[in-house]
Amino acid sequence: MSKTNDSLTGVINLGNLDSKPSIDAKRKAKRKMYDKLFYRFCQGTIFFALVTLVVLVVHILMSGLSWISLDFFTNFTSRFAERAGIKAAIFGSLWVLFLTASFAIPLGVSAAIFLEEYAPKKLWVQWVQINIGNLAGMPSIVYGLVGLAVFVRYFNFERSLLAGSLTLTLLILPIIIISSQEAIKAVPLSLREAAYALGANKWQVVFLQVLPAALPGILTGVILSISRAIGETAPLIVIGALSFVAFTPTNIWDEFTVLPIQIYNWASKPQAEFHELAAAAIIILLVLLFAMNFLAIYLRQKYQRYKL
Predict the structure, then answer these.
(1) What is the mean pLDDT of residues 284-303?
(2) Which of 70, 90, 160, 244 is the most exposed place for a label (fewest CB within 10 A)?
(3) Within 13 Å of residue 15, how many CA atoms lie on the same side as its CB?
């Protein structure tokens, strides 16, 4: 009787062994099917996004390319579409770009260096890091409200270039800090240890070894952040930047306009000619943003060989 039971148990065990590979095969087939479906979904999403982008770009080119001329760059905006240009917006954008970079780059890079190399690993530092990450994802219009309350009303900067530049500085500062921190973290620890072994002190290690090695990543983050600031409209509208400016600013206390606000003003008009002018200004803004992104990639590739 025991022999019979042993033989039955062996048969059952063999049956279980035979069924286990079939179960694993079914699971693998199911996983492959899910992987293929997800892959096709990602392909479809990318294809849809590219087609949408191409349609929009082609439409903008067909609408605005004929309006781009020398007069378009040298004329101020006007009530008449054939006389309107982007001279004030171009100069305002350049002013805002220069001032924002002057404020944001030293503050952002210095803060990143302090947080990564000098700040103690304590609770308040973690709290600061969490808040910087939260600020990086904040909607841009919130920064416009902060700029309106602090710079325009409290400090009484009015609707000046200084108020607009400081508002955009708040907008891109968290992004510069985070990207600079990531670039500094990517520097190998062996580089620091080798510098210390040769007798270098803390500031020599940070500023003569770590910072040059992290420069490609820092430059990339800075340029991409500034290119985002150039394309922002909501914060500047909230602080009261003008949409009709017939002069070029000469100092930081002057009123101003920028390309995104000029585009918004023309696009909101009912006449089709102003819509075409808005498309022409969009082309100029896209070229400017593409040039800045290309510069970021070029600088990263150029100085990458110095990064260990």
Answers:
(1) 82
(2) 70
(3) 6
Q: What percent of the chain has pLDDT over 90?
A: 21
* pTM of this prediction exceeds 0.90: no
> Burial letters for 174-208: b for 16+ Cβ neighbours within 10 Å, e otherwise?
bbbbbbbbebbeebeeeebeebeeeeeeeeebbee
How many Cα atoms are found within 13 Å in the side-chain-facing hemisphere of 295?
14
> In the numeric block, which tokens belong to residue 193?
């240890």
CB 74 within 8 A of CB 85: yes
pLDDT of 308: 45
Distance CA 94, CA 96 (A): 5
HSE-up of residue 64 (Cα within 13 Å, Cβ side): 24
68 contacts: CB under 8 Å, gap ≥ 6:
280, 283, 284
In Å, how far from its chain's centre is CA 130? Answer: 19
Rounded alpha-carbon distances, angstroms, from residue 180 to 130, 223, 227: 16, 12, 16
Q: What are 13's two structure tokens?
A: 């065990």
